[in-house]
Amino acid sequence: MTDCFACENTNCLIKKNLKNPKIEKYIVEKHNIKCKKAQQFIMEGAPAHGLFFVRKGQVKVVKTGIYGREQIVRFAHDGEIIGHRGFGAGKNYPIGALAIKETFLCNFTNEVMVKMLRDVPELTFDMMLFYSEELNRSETKVRKFAQMTVREKVIDSFLYINRKFGQSEDGFFNIQLPRKDFADFAGTTEEQVIRIISSLKKESLLKSKGKKIGIANISLLKKEISEHNYFLDS
DNA sequence: GCATTAATTGGTC
DNA sequence: GACCAATTAATGC
């Protein structure tokens, strides 16, 4: 059992509320799960068995669309919540989730979550803010899908990845994703992503080496989608 | 090295 | 702009 007090994820909602002593009897009930790379820990449509927090690692949240086409809903890393929409008694998860690389998760069952939320209003309030943000993100994503060109959506995806995971010294993203995943996230095909990557490289806006991708000129990239309110996040 | 998987390119609808 | 096919590069064993 990993200790929440020793955890470094200051953005975690549980961690934020540790100062309330009432929370202690619930966090001892959490489960720790280790996922290997590519391992799925939430099956789409399966009965919900609680809420997950990423303790350390990288996760993608997917949803199967019509004709079996996969859509990546979002990515998550340290401190973030997964499975919050299957939360509530007798529900099923509307999404699937799998580890992108080795990932350590914390899991609270529904029962424990319900008790904890009723007992710790500060946590409930933080959760409410989280749901509100999620809804906002979801709405702007719908708008982007409707209004952006494919090129803009792909650029937007790169900027999202950059915001979320950042780049290391060598100028490449701190996450490795196949082209297919960028496509599933941007709502297009692998071939389009590949073509857009190569033209962005020619324009010196992007760099790539094998699977590694990085941003070469962020201000110009942002400029390309500035009309679509990049700032509102997604 | 061989086998499998991912990236790339070209072409069709 | 999606889908399909063929080629090439990368990666696992």
Q: CATH architecture of the largest domain, please?
A: Sandwich
In which order are the strands of the major sheet placed? Answer: 1-8-3-6
Helix content: 25-40%
SSE string = HHEEEEEEEEHHHHHEEH
Beta content comes to 15-25%
- Strand runs, count: 10
What's the alpha carbon Rg, rounded to whole Å?
19 Å
Give the total of domains. Answer: 2
Shape estimate: elongated
CATH class type of the largest domain: Mainly Beta
Tell me the span between the first and last alpha carbons.
34 Å
Major sheet attributes: 4 strands, antiparallel
CATH superfamily of the largest domain: Jelly Rolls
Tell me the quaternary state. single chain
The number of distinct helices, counting runs of at least 4 residues, comes to: 8
Query: Under CATH, the topology of the largest domain is which?
Result: Jelly Rolls
Backbone structural class: alpha+beta
Describe the structure.
This protein is an alpha+beta fold. The protein has 2 domains: 4-137, Jelly Rolls; 148-227, Orthogonal Bundle (Arc Repressor Mutant, subunit A), CATH 1.10.10. Helix content is 38%, strand content 21%. It has 8 helices and 10 strands. The protein has a 4-stranded antiparallel beta sheet. A 4-stranded antiparallel beta sheet has the order 2-7-4-5. A hairpin with a 5-residue loop joins strand 4 (58-64) and strand 5. Helix 5 crosses helix 6 (179-186), helix 5 packs across helix 8 (218-224) and helix 6 (179-186) crosses helix 7 (190-202). The chain is elongated, with a radius of gyration of 19 Å. The mean pLDDT is 93. The chain binds a DNA duplex (13 and 13 nucleotides) through residues 150, 178-180, 188-192, 194-195, 198, 210-211.
